[in-house]
Amino acid sequence: MSPASAIPACAPRSPKVHTTLALTCLAALLLSGISNAAAQETPAIRANPDTVRTWNRFADGIYQLHLQHLRDTEVRTETRAGGYPEGSLGGPDFFHEVHYYDAATGRLLSRIQWETAQVQTIHSIQVYLHDDEGRVRVDYYAAYLPVFRNAPMNTLVNLHAYHGELRAFRQFDASGNRRYEQCRGRLEGESLWLDAEFFPMDESVVESDAYRRCFGMLQEQAGEHIDPLHHLRGTAQWPAIRPESAAELDQLISQYEHKRRITPLRGDLRVKAGDAWYLKGDDPQAIAHYDAALEIDPALYEAYFGRGMALTRLGRVEEGIESLDRFLAQAPGSTLGYVQRGLAHLALDRPERAVADLRRALTLDPDNAEARAALQRLGQDG
């Protein structure tokens, strides 16, 4: 079941999802005459909690890749306003779309539609990863409805391949389901266009020479690409959403509180609210939100990380380590988790445990400056 099973499913037919195309699938809802006020009173759409959790993590991972682009590259941006027809949900000024380009090469790195009336709230996001020749090799996409934001209404990972004058991509959603594939270009001097959206395909098509040349280099399953963080170099930023001012942070907290009243069963929203309260410096409030998130969905292991950070800052370091233990048991590839647990062990004068965690962090991210500096303070080689 999709995160918004009451909404017709629709997948963009191009890996470069332009605004008009990506949002066409919302037309049935947006033009239905539902008022914003009525929509706010509508109960949260019921969905498979595993899918909701998976798709939210997928979208969060895409944003981390975007942050990686901002860290690694000098970026040039272009912005334009956008939205929906007058009288529909969202309205004509619902978002502003920002394109992020590599300033040196002109390559499009990311495209984000930011909601105009909400602080640091993504309406849709697409991030591109390029090969050494500047061609897109993988791109990720997630988009939300203007309301019912329990999870993205659409998630996509596109794997790309190039063979002579042929360009192909194979598309999956965040649950690993193959959604679509397309190949176009020229083969032996003739124009070629192949596409498919129903699987498995007829054997005669799959075994044809044209199909093999188009898709032969693409893997059958999304594999490791299903997790955007697979491509993350270095350590993820936490919290990912960081308002630029205290006033924006207060507005963000107010937004989370409003949304929580509308959709009280959104554990991921509680995690983000906890992160915001942590940024504000109110650790008891942060812990309360993390605890509430885990009551709603015990599999939201991100809450254990935030809880561990807040408990440690409160001086309840042993409890903080216990939370970080539970986080790392479910996220063993988290550099940040090992760094913070190592520092917590250091605060309790447990140098051997601290060194073990900090070295594990450097194994995962050899450039992690925080882990290296802590090891040097302990007289260890960073």
Automatic annotation (TrEMBL):
Q: What is this protein called?
A: Uncharacterized protein
Annotated organism of origin: Thioalkalivibrio sulfidiphilus (strain HL-EbGR7)
List the taxonomic lineage.
Bacteria, Pseudomonadati, Pseudomonadota, Gammaproteobacteria, Chromatiales
The stretch of residues making up the signal peptide is 1-37
Repeat is among the record's keywords: yes
Identify the stretches annotated as TPR repeats.
267-300, 301-334, 335-368
Which keywords are on file for this protein? Repeat, Signal, TPR repeat
